[in-house]
Amino acid sequence: MLRFEQVTKSYSGGFVALDRVSFHLEKGEMAFLTGHSGAGKSTLLKLISLIERPTTGKVFINGVDLSRVNRGQVPYVRRDIGMIFQNHKLLMNHSVFDNVALPLVIEGFSGKDMTKRVHAALDKVGLLDKVRCLPHTLSGGEQQRVGIARAVVNRPPLLLADEPTGNLDPDLSKDIMNVFEAFNQVGVSVLIASHDLSLLARMRYRTLTLKNGRMINDGLTSYGADE
Amino acid sequence: MSILFQGRATGATAVKQSLWNRFVMFWVHHIRQALTSLGEIWLTPASSLLTVAVLGVSLTLPVTLHLMVKNLQQVSSSIDQAAQISLFLKADTNETQIAELIALLQANPEVADVQFIDKSQALAEFTAESGFGDAFSYIEDNPLPHVMLVSPKNTSSVAASALLETLKQERYVELAKLDIGWLERLDAIVSLVRQVAMAVALLLMVAVLLVVGNTIRLMILNKKDEIEVMKLVGATNSYIQRPFLYTGIWLGFFGGILTFLIEEVLLWWLKHAIAGVTQLYESSFTLEPMSLAELGYLLLVAISLGFFGSLLAVRRNISQIEATGL
């Protein structure tokens, strides 16, 4: 589903954010991406969502080489990837419904079909009763779940999450993770960047660990050694 | 169409729709977006109102000049129709010679009409109209010559001056005069004003383009976060820019309407002043207002200026906003 081949990303000024990173996320697999802040987690996600391009190396999604995707095609690639952001990235002066409906509106949906899908997505994250609310009237956890609903509303085969439990207490974090697990169980590939080690330990999924831009561990959770 | 996942049904195209249905939905979509943009203008009235005002005032000047040219042309053409050649006859011309000349002129195919004014008749008219009145009674001899007013068939200034040249050669004619000099001057002035109007219009149109562009640019910057989010969830540039283009069109439309209103008020205001002037000249001149077709052109120009101004801003600014995300 998602494959990195010797990917290096260096920024002007010589800072190397990712150094020869390779890994492969299978179809329907769920994995964590961890490491200190500045280790390259965000850069890695940016390369997948084509916010950044690799300096060398290749990124494949479903066998498609992303370096072959031109500027005009980037939006269409992003429609195939559900993205969840740490700071939610919601439209604050639009209702929850409008926020979740945004990817559908962009793809040309309207009317009953759209409403049905939005309600289904909000139902999955348990926010069906907040449809008409504005995001700032919601709690942090609820806003995050609106973000998740928006990411999954057009049923993408790949889900990326950047610190989805960033500012949430453990109980809420667990709720959010359960939502991800539910999507994973219906065949969606999920990659979650998180530095919440206790959460990772409880979840027991494959974990990719980055340190100073290098992949130092790829496997089941086994950290603590040099933390 | 999905680029990454062959066969993944995405978007509304995944739902089978008839061609007619899609055609209808296309228009419904556009109308909806146009109305949304109108709503946005309504929500931020201050800056939009200022832009519309700038548009309205800027377009008023060229439109006023255009109307001025149009009315001046109307004046000059009405005078052109009455172009007459005055033949002043030699002082010693007698009755038979005059009759001979009249017959000769009437036979000329270039001449439409000949009117003879006897010198005593001329003196009486002059005494009555000049206001010198009694002063003429002290003059023993009538100093005025006989005059013949010749109306040419072809009233264009070129044909009339050609006729003038031939009539000058007539034996009893002392002096022939065609008063088209000032007419030519008026024509020259009209064409000058028209050129000035064109230049001013061109400059002001560029100004309007830039003003609209700047307004839209500010709107884009105000919505930077929103645009970023839209880009992150897969909106294309053309999707993001569409509402801004509609906003430009609306600004142009309202600017055009405002121009029309200002123009109407201006004409109403000037009407009295112009009536005063024309009364002095005993002319039946009436001020021609803006015609429906002209209003149509005005709106067309204003709307295109709004559209292209916003296109300018949109092209530059929307692709510059990159999703930074994460």
From TrEMBL, chain A:
Coiled-coil stretches: none
PROSITE patterns linked to this entry: ABC_TRANSPORTER_1 (PS00211), ABC_TRANSPORTER_2 (PS50893)
ABC transporter domain span: 2-227
InterPro entries to which the protein is assigned, alphabetical: AAA+_ATPase (IPR003593), ABC_transporter-like_ATP-bd (IPR003439), ABC_transporter-like_CS (IPR017871), ABC_transpr_LolD-like (IPR015854), Cell_div_FtsE (IPR005286), P-loop_NTPase (IPR027417)
Domain of life: Bacteria
Gene3D superfamilies linked: P-loop containing nucleotide triphosphate hydrolases
GO MF annotation, one: ATP binding
Pfam families listed in its UniProt record: ABC_tran
Family under the similarity heading: Belongs to the ABC transporter superfamily.
The protein's role, per its UniProt record: Part of the ABC transporter FtsEX involved in cellular division. Important for assembly or stability of the septal ring.
Subunit description: Homodimer. Forms a membrane-associated complex with FtsX.
Name recorded for this polypeptide: Cell division ATP-binding protein FtsE
Organism, as annotated: Rheinheimera soli
